[in-house]
Amino acid sequence: GDSVTQMEGPVTLSEEAFLTINCTYTATGYPSLFWYVQYPGEGLQLLLKATKADDKGSNKGFEATYRKETTSFHLEKGSVQVSDSAVYFCALRRGTLTFGKGTMLLVSP
Amino acid sequence: GAGVSQTPSNKVTEKGKYVELRCDPISGHTALYWYRQSLGQGPEFLIYFQGTGAADDSGLPNDRFFAVRPEGSVSTLKIQRTERGDSAVYLCASSVVHGGRAAETQYFGPGTRLLVL
User: Fold this and answer.
1) B71 with B50: CB under 8 angstroms?
2) Which stretches of chain A sit within 8 Å of chain B by CB?
């Protein structure tokens, strides 16, 4: 069945550091790919998405590129802020959403 | 505008009891989803409604779990004979439907945290 694997956290960074959170997936066909974010005390929010191979999703300085050849959708940001501290979920959609386990990001001043 | 709302925000019950969890989707969203998120895990799909009918209930773990959406808006997730393993955050999401297909973007509610003692 479909599955999503993302790097375990927590990821601990200093402000202005470069961020990468790895995500790979297993699915038949060509799913749409998503990153969702959950800030402390809040619900899941869509961060970005890509619907086909080589598409790049971007939002709030975050980017991820749909790589069919490596079945990956790694999340990157050039300079993180303290306010980016949250749990990040990679997900794929073929009908319904299949999520990874989540990666906690902690950014210190 | 109002987002997806869920009530109660927290529910504590005893093993063997019956619970109902409510979801109020965004107005006009025909598609509605229920997910369960256990501690340290990502959300897991339970059931998907399009309108009043369950289009996909393949994620319901067993027959103790049931969900309804009688008027195509509010949905209730019902759990009978609760077990300690049912403790989790239950999330609801909704989306618009175009041409009979649910849109890519789902909007999530804050969840109901269920604790079974």
Assistant:
1) no
2) 4, 32, 34, 36, 42-46, 49, 51, 89, 91, 93, 95-102
